[in-house]
Amino acid sequence: MKLYIKELREEKGYTQKELADMMQVSFQTISKWETGANYPDITHIPKLADIFGVSAGVLLGMEPLKEENAEVKYDDEVYWNRKRDLLKVWKRLFWNEDYFKFLVKEVWKFKKPIDILDLGCGYGYLGSIMLPLLPKGSSYTGVELDGEQIKEAEEYFSDKPYQCSFIKENIYDLKTEKKYDLVVTLFLMSHLPDPKRVLQIMKQALKPGGMILIMDANMEVEQAGFYSGLEREENGLSRPDFIPMWEYEVSHGQRDYRMATKLPYLLKQEGFKDIQARISDQVIIYEPSDPSKKQMNEDFRYVYTHEDSYEGGTGYFMNRGLSLDKANEICDYYSRSSEYFDKPDSMAVKTSGVYFVYAKL
Question: Which CATH number fits domain 5-63: 1.10.3720.10, 1.10.10.10, 3.40.50.920, 1.10.260.40?
Answer without folding.
Answer: 1.10.260.40
